[in-house]
Amino acid sequence: MLKLIILGFYMPIMLTSLLLARHIFYTYVMESFDHKSIILDYLMEGLIFFIHEIIIIDFSFISLGLICFQYVLPIATFFLGRKRYANLNFILTPLIVFGFLKLKTGLVSTALIQIYLKAFFVWLTCWLIVMLKNIGFFGKFSLALSFINIFNTVITFFTLRNFYSIQDRIILFLCILFGTALIIIFIYAYLRDLKRRREMKKQITYDSLHDRLTNLLNYRAFSVFVSEQTSQDDLTILMIDIDNFKNLNDQYGHIVGNQILRFFANKLNSTFLKEYKYEVFIYRFGGEEFCVIIRDISVTDCYQTVLNLKKVLKEHPFRLKTHQKIDFSFSGGIARSTKTIHPRDALRYADTLLYQAKKSGKAKVNYGEEDQG
């Protein structure tokens, strides 16, 4: 009865714990090391794998009188980790098994060949399963683990057929199958939770860098971007402000005001992305103020795109659900950072040009490439 509990419950829990420990170690410890030594990586992997594999083999042998689940770590590493480490695991597993049995039972040296042939079959099976189409990576892992544990169990029981009755072999075989299923379920639950956490982290990062109303980048994202730039970066910066937006809010209400902001943000985004694709970054600073940063274009090219935006707004104005048209304009300022002008200075100059456009009558866009210092 104790053997059944060990095979069906205890060992699957222990193996899952070791797999999670390996994943956490490589994710949070190994990747934090600032080194580029492949040899050190392999040494660390070999040492950790040796310790974990000895734990599995020793516990299995002492508790059950046989070795089982010895290929769970290599298979999991092959499908869920790094294949280069998995290859090392497949090489080390026969050596560890042979060395352990040599010390415990005085196993003859020729048995090493048989153990390696079994390991080669397991490794080859993994590669063949990888090539299967229309099956996800976790499905391939589950298939490989189930098949190889069945294969390994059949071979083991055939070798030890004189020590176990047919009834005992069937019961142990079913327990190993049940244990394999538990390992798959535990790992699936962990991976699903890990995926959920990653998606949450990704969403939190996205929310921290984007404006909720317009889905444009926000001022925090702008600050991060500017802090990463140097005086060598050639950037054209456009500052835009919707004219008389407070009056629009007062006249039509904040809900309509928000709709206007979303409408303008969409037109701004589509116009500039259509022209510059991946070289443009569009921000909402708050309220009715927006900023556009474009790499490696002239101020006049940017100004031409602004004229295109004005044309788009004129041809496709904002309308309420009642089809009432609401016309509005915007003012802007365009400046450029160069080798002698840092992006922060260019931003200040663009803001100054925007202020001048507002002061001189609005619905204007000023630009300049003269000294901005």
TrEMBL record:
Signal peptide: none annotated. Residues 233-370 form the GGDEF domain. The chain crosses the membrane at residues 7-29, 49-73, 85-103, 115-132, 144-164, 170-191. InterPro entries: Diguanylate_Cyclase (IPR050469), GGDEF_dom (IPR000160), Nucleotide_cyclase (IPR029787), Rev_trsase/Diguanyl_cyclase (IPR043128). GO terms for cellular component: plasma membrane. Keywords: Membrane, Transmembrane, Transmembrane helix. GO terms for molecular function: diguanylate cyclase activity. GO terms for biological process: cell adhesion involved in single-species biofilm formation; negative regulation of bacterial-type flagellum-dependent cell motility. This is Signal transduction diguanylate cyclase.
